[in-house]
Amino acid sequence: MAVLSLPLLNHKRLSLRHLALTGLAFTLFYIIYNSFLPPFYPGFHQPPPHRRPPVSWKSNTRPEEWARRAQAVKGAFIHAYRGYEKFAFGRDEVMPLTNVPIDNFNGWGVTMVDSLDTMLLMGLTEEFERALPLVEQTTFHLNDTLHAPFFETVIRYLGGLLSAHALSSEPILLARADDLGRLLSPAFNTSSGFPAYAVNTVSGQTRGPLTAILAEIASCQLEYLYLAKATGKKEHFDKANHINHLLESAALGTQYGGMLPVRWNLTSGTPWDGSAQLSVGAAADSAHEYLLKQYLLSGKTDKASLEMYLRTTTRIITSLLYLSPTRHLLYVTDASVSPTTTSPSHVFEHLSCFLPGLFTLGASLLPLDNLEELGVNWDDIIDGAGAGSGRGASGKGEYGLTREERARWRKVGRYNLKELHMWVAEGLGESCYLMYADQKSGLGPDEVVFNSNYKTSTGSTHTGGNRVDGSRQGSKGRPGIGWGVGDGDGIGEVDDGKWFDVVERWRRSGGRGPPPGVGVKKRVVYDDTEKSMGPYPGHARDYLIRKTEYLLRPETIESIYLLWRTTGDDRWRERGWLIFEAIERESKTPTAYATIKTVHTDPPRQDNSMPSYFLAETLKYLYLLFMDQDLIPLDKWVFNTEAHPFPVFNWTLTEKNLFGIP
Ligand SMILES: *[C@@H]1O[C@H](CO)[C@@H](O)[C@H](O)[C@H]1NC(C)=O
Ligand SMILES: *[C@@H]1O[C@H](CO)[C@@H](O)[C@H](O)[C@H]1NC(C)=O
Ligand SMILES: *[C@@H]1O[C@H](CO)[C@@H](O)[C@H](O)[C@H]1NC(C)=O
Ligand SMILES: *[C@@H]1O[C@H](CO)[C@@H](O)[C@H](O)[C@H]1NC(C)=O
After folding, report:
1. pTM of the predicted model, to two decimals?
2. Which DSSP letter does residue 39 get?
């Protein structure tokens, strides 16, 4: 893609008439520009800017066509599930290129259990009734050499059973869920009470390192809470409750700047003392997601989770969101933190693409523009994130907010938070979609790394439009500079592409036009002569692909679904259809669907795997996206991180007394 350069005036002889006409044109342009854009953004002493509500885009696709598209997704599910039934029924997954079964998740039929609620939503009662007897017979036993990975077993099996029970009221499913919850519970037999990595369901023996990973210890509360609600059993409630207490006290006590770090000490139940990492991607993702979702599931009563969600999202906004230098794509990355610095890796993961969905969910279901109504005081939110003092009394670093970070948090509190969160949702959603649209296959890679060289590429302030100077200082002929992992800038440096700082400059200079990183961007598809894997000056995409696989993952489609449902903007729906078409074109095999090894080649290469989440999540969200009927209203249901919906509930007085809920 060519970088536009400004037409040079000295190509033509300037006459007075030219100048007068140009002046008139500029004046007219200025008047029109200002009358179409929101009024001057007045700064913080005025009431918050009331931008006109975004006009949601309506596509020309007719209702019958959407209905047809939903049926096409149902057809894809049937194709995938038939392949599983034919070659691997009762086993975990079918390998789609060789048509042989594989037991990679305990051998209890993970594809079947993960798919039950999708079948119910799609009205596939025959498939459901063929599966039910097998589920009924499942004992969840393992021979003594094997251990069930706790996290995956909870989100896929326990989540799948509970959700299918909620949708069908079939008692067998709840009985099996109750069994499984109990058989897995020895995993909590660690000194801290956080679950171990894996557990044998017969002996209760646990396995796994003593340093655990956030997502794996803190993404089971929705399942155990709803299990407690559905069975009335305190033992299940206690599991979730204990984890929440640990997270809460760790967050308040060690103060990692408001966000739970990735690595934890299973013995002490506190963050690991070694180097700290903040991430919304692999190893962390669903733990952050569950903060908001627990609040929603339990009828918006769990205020501690809500406050942790607000701190986490603020830390994400001020520390982990960046803009790319040329296209101004908004992306979220992970960072290693020390008491005084936060160093972003500039890696952007497919797994992180659930985040736009989470932000739009929170912004649409919570009165974020009226924190009082939520019972939240912004100063308490900031104080709860702690103050970093460089060196703590313990001699170890204290990881609270640095002075600059604190200042950013105060500024965040003065924005209309609902609006700010929507900008994040829409900007990130755009980038997640473009990761697909940029590839010839139409499918998104698992990981990219962004050019972090924001300053040299953009000059001073920039809020959109084309970059003027295409050169990237110091990088000519030296591939790798500005692209590497861990090559981040410390907090406090101005103009390193930190999104919030650019938004602040945009606001201070009048806040005209869409906020930085928000709005529709063009795709950049490389032709065959361009290398998609090597950096070079003028690299038009702003990123390199680091992991070329598309693993049939759901995150981008999940966010597209939530963005469409919450904003009504059909643009998201049309994009979801493009992605589904790409899946049909590139992933479909004669018997099922296959993951993709190389999204950047034409044609892409397939791999011999069909993860169960493809049926549980990817196809479910696509189906819901094309159905006009709102089968799972977001204010009445909460999806677990494997897309299994649980109904929102209130604790009754009896339950409160029994479980000890204040
Ligand atoms: C336990 O499972 C392992 C791995 O599947 C297998 O090799 C072994 O024979 C099994 N042992 C028993 C006693 O079934
Ligand atoms: C919990 O672990 C301890 C030792 O670590 C063991 O003695 C005990 O039997 C275990 N309890 C269960 C229920 O597995
Ligand atoms: C975890 O915490 C315990 C108790 O505080 C401590 O003895 C142990 O060294 C810690 N382990 C690691 C890996 O940091
Ligand atoms: C929970 O309680 C609130 C307030 O009492 C009520 O408005 C809401 O409908 C209840 N939700 C459910 C699912 O019962």
Report:
1. 0.87
2. P
